[in-house]
Design goal:
The complex is a heterodimer of chains A (444) and B (281). Chain A is built from 14 helices and 17 strands. Chain A has 444 residues and is of the alpha/beta class. Among the domains of chain A are: 158 residues, Rossmann fold (3-Layer(aba) Sandwich), CATH 3.40.50; 71 residues, no CATH class. In chain A, helix 1 crosses helix 4 and helix 4 packs across helix 7. Chain B has two domains: 55 residues, 3-methyladenine DNA Glycosylase II, Chain A, domain 3 (Orthogonal Bundle); 167 residues, Alpha-Beta Plaits. In chain B, the strands form four sheets. A two-stranded antiparallel ribbon of chain B has the order 1-4. A two-stranded antiparallel sheet of chain B has the order 2-3. Chain B is built from ten helices and eight strands. In chain B, helix 2 crosses helix 3 and helix 2 runs antiparallel to helix 4. With 281 residues, chain B is of the alpha+beta class. The relative contact order of chain B is 0.12. The N and C termini of chain B lie far apart (82 Å). Classes of the chains: A alpha/beta (444), B alpha+beta (281). Chains A and B meet through strand 16 and helix 14 of A and helix 5 of B. The complex binds iron/sulfur cluster (4 copies). The site of one iron/sulfur cluster has 15 residues of chain B, from helix 6.
């Protein structure tokens, strides 16, 4: 019996249409737009101005605090403006727009394909360099990686867990990356292990990717302390707490940091980016994005320069199909519907999912029949129907007691609800409100 | 039989004495004026005064040293005038106020760029994205304000999908102000006529104009034309201070985007002339 997490969870249809599409590089876009707030934390400070020329890898915006991230130019060319533009959700934020000319890279970046295994930097230097390279969690959370690698002093990491579960339906960018660059990923893991001072890594891969499991197992034999853990396919296995539970059989206490169990979790895409940053001096300027959907002409896993517009990438994948009714940024479970396709692809964009008329719409909302399906599905052991009702009625004290803040917004509850109740919609606002209350309480 | 009667009588007697002693010992002298004031208050328990219901407001009145900052918006000045003599204080006449919706982004004025089908709550939409238009500051049209009003003073206009405040009902309790996640509703003085900027967009003019044809672009023309210096521009948005506004309407004609609204108390029809003409989204 394969391992998986113990509480709740669901198994939606996998729809991994692009599982066998290799990573395909796409042409360099003529223009890129780089949003300064594409990571969690403080937006970066722009350090270029209109007319400046940049190369691939030139630092264009600096982290504006510890929880923030550097941003580098993904193309070479001239900065054409620094102004507010709308992101995928129609919200305006400062953006650096660069017109591409040629493809000239910073000289320091090693573009040779050779695998470089030897790790020469000290742990401190590694973390510093990761911060300089602007690496953030590439699974979609976009939390700055260097922050996660420097846990509060009272916690001593004992193990590294690499999330290669890719539990979201449709998405296959991590899968494709594992098949393309297993060694780079494994060296990335070794680097991360050195950075946090641990001797053991577990790479969790769901058993719907047997080829990736076999390939990584075969390559991992050459690296010390890296174990591949096949997991039973189940959503949301990629949640930090769920993954720790699945692999280590340890539960993260309520309100505690995942590192309290001794585990630091990183995404497999992040491990690859760390390899490139440390061994090849390459900052985060591109990533793999799955473009998928039942009716799209050329679904695939594309390696794109950050800042390319979503519309351009969709066009490369065959354009929006006739019956397109909804475009989702990320996977169908945790991703969000997009209202502006002319917005750029950011560091956290793991996939673009195009849904047709048949699958795009929500069902009619009916009253809660107290069936308990949402309770059964919740991987955090919460009572989603209750939390939703409490938030809807602004009963935040009670919602706090019912642990609304531990909701991970996985959407299992809303997915399971036979009455199509917008459970997560309400939980999300309640969670935000309770977090605000907690913050203001801490301040006073 | 007899024993049970005796035992029960003894229990009764002991409990009665106990109750009497306790009630004596823990007796709290309650100010009778609280009850008196509460009986004058409208009993709407709307929270518009800023306190948890009418009784709490009565308690605050009794505690207060002056009535200057206390007002029951439902009862208004009439009720405050009745409360004042009970406490032997003066109630200053407060200008009546009304809720004002600072957005006129009907579908005609700002193009709909997406279709939303999640939970019908402005708070939910605001947490997700810009809403069905690209304006980051405008009305989301899901009616949290209307739902928050205990008096039915705000209704959502089915054509414009903007809230409409009925001046005959609105008593300026402020519930809608608190409910709006975009901070669009403001309580303003009931002037004749009311002049206000019906826009909340703080983006630069060029962006504001792109998302909505009647956006305030922060050009400052209105501020220059005001004889009393009532208009200030902050973050690309004009604001008319109702305590300084003379209702002269000098600012209105100059606004290139017609963002300044004039609403006449007496002629209700004036209120949504623009809005009523707009097409259904
Ligand atoms: S979204 Fe939150 S409440 Fe709903 S199932 Fe996931 S963790 Fe539980
Ligand atoms: S799944 Fe839906 S209907 Fe069932 S208890 Fe939860 S909210 Fe109610
Ligand atoms: S620009 Fe102003 S009037 Fe137009 S929708 Fe936005 S807030 Fe409303
Ligand atoms: S005014 Fe505010 S609360 Fe009322 S419908 Fe508009 S966004 Fe919602």
């Amino acid at each position: 019996m394969l391992k998986t997490f113990r509480i709740g969870g669901i198994h939606p249809n996998e729809h991994k249409l692009t599982a066998h599409c290799p990573v395909t590089p796409v042409a360099i876009p003529k223009q890129v737009s780089i949003m300064l707030n594409q990571h969690i934390g403080a937006p970066a400070n722009c350090i270029v101005k209109k007319g400046d020329t940049v190369k691939v890898g030139t630092l264009i915006a600096e982290a504006s605090g510890f929880v923030s991230a550097n941003i580098h130019s993904p193309v070479s060319g001239t900065v054409s403006k620094v102004d507010k533009t709308a992101n995928a959700f129609g919200l305006y934020a400062t953006t650096i727009v660069i017109d591409t000319e040629g493809d000239e890279w910073e000289e320091t970046i090693d573009r040779s394909p050779e695998l470089k295994e030897e790790i020469t930097l000290s742990p401190q230097e590694i973390i510093q360099k990761i911060a300089q390279a602007g690496i953030v969690g590439l699974g979609g959370a976009t939390f700055p990686t260097h922050v996660k690698l420097t846990p509060p002093k009272e916690f001593k990491p004992t193990v590294l867990i690499v999330n290669a579960t890719e539990c979201e339906p449709y998405l296959t960018d991590d899968h494709a990356l594992m098949l393309e660059s297993p060694d780079q990923i494994l060296v990335g893991c070794r680097i991360l292990m050195k950075a946090i001072g641990v001797e053991q890594t577990y790479i969790g891969i769901e058993n719907n990717k047997p080829d990736a499991i076999a390939l990584l197992e075969q390559h991992a034999a050459r690296y010390l302390g890296i174990t591949i853990v096949p997991l039973r396919t189940r959503y949301p296995q990629g949640g930090e707490k769920q993954l720790i539970d699945a692999i280590l059989h340890k539960q993260v206490a309520n309100g505690a940091l995942p590192v309290s169990t001794g585990a630091i979790v990183q995404n497999v895409g992040t491990a690859f980016a760390v390899y490139e940053a440390i061994q090849k001096n390459k900052p985060l300027v591109d990533r793999v994005v799955t473009v998928t959907g039942d009716h799209i002409a050329k679904p695939g896993n594309y390696r794109v320069r950050l800042g390319m517009s979503m519309r351009e990438l969709i066009d490369i994948a065959g354009g929006l199909p006739q019956d397109c009714a909804k475009v989702i940024l990320g996977g169908p479970m945790m991703g969000k519907a997009v209202s502006n396709l002319d917005s750029p692809i950011g560091k956290g964009c793991s996939g673009i999912l195009i849904l047709d008329e048949e699958h795009a719409h929500r069902g009619a909302i009916n009253p809660c029949i107290r069936c308990g399906k949402c309770v059964e599905a919740c991987p955090m052991g919460l009572e989603p129907f209750l939390l939703a009702k409490l938030s809807e009625n602004h009963l935040y004290d009670r919602a706090e007691k019912e642990l609304i803040t531990s909701c991970l917004e996985c959407g299992c509850c809303a997915y399971s609800c036979p009455s199509n109740r917008p459970i997560l919609d309400f939980i999300r606002i309640g969670k935000n409100a309770v977090n605000r209350i907690i913050r203001s309480r801490k301040q006073s | 039989m007899v024993t049970s009667i005796i035992i029960l009588s003894i229990i009764g007697l002991v409990s009665a004495t106990l109750l009497y002693v306790i009630s004596r010992k823990f007796h709290v002298e309650e100010d009778s004026r609280i009850d008196e004031i509460e009986s004058i208050l409208p009993g709407a328990n709307c929270g518009g005064c800023g306190f948890a219901g009418c009784r709490n407001f009565a308690e605050q009145c009794v505690k207060a040293t002056s009535l200057d900052n206390l007002l029951c918006p439902v009862g208004g000045n009439a009720v405050m005038q009745k409360i004042a003599p009970i406490l032997g204080m003066q109630a200053v006449e407060q200008a009546p106020r009304i809720a004002v919706v600072r957005c006129n982004g009907s579908c005609e004025n700002r193009p709909q760029t997406s279709h939303y089908e999640g939970a019908h709550s402005c708070a939910v939409v605001a947490a997700l994205y810009s809403g069905e238009s690209n304006c980051n500051y405008g009305c989301l049209g899901e009616g949290d304000c209307a739902a928050a009003c205990d008096f039915g003073g705000i209704t959502m206009d089915p054509i414009t999908r903007l809230p409409y405040v009925d001046p005959n009902i609105c008593i300026a309790c402020g519930s809608c102000v608190k409910a709006c996640p975009r901070n669009i509703i403001e309580l303003r003085k009931r002037q004749e006529p009311r002049v206000f900027v019906a826009c909340n967009n703080r983006d630069k003019g060029i962006i504001a104009r792109k998302v909505c044809s009647i956006a305030c672009i922060g050009c400052g023309k209105c501020a220059k034309s005001c004889p009393n210096g009532a208009i200030t521009i902050t973050d690309n948005l004009a604001y008319i201070d109702d305590s300084l506004c003379l209702s002269c309407q000098a600012c209105v004609a100059g606004c290139p985007t017609h963002a300044i609204h004039v609403v006449n108390e007496s002629a209700k029809e004036n209120i949504s002339i623009n809005e009523k003409e707009s097409a259904i989204c």
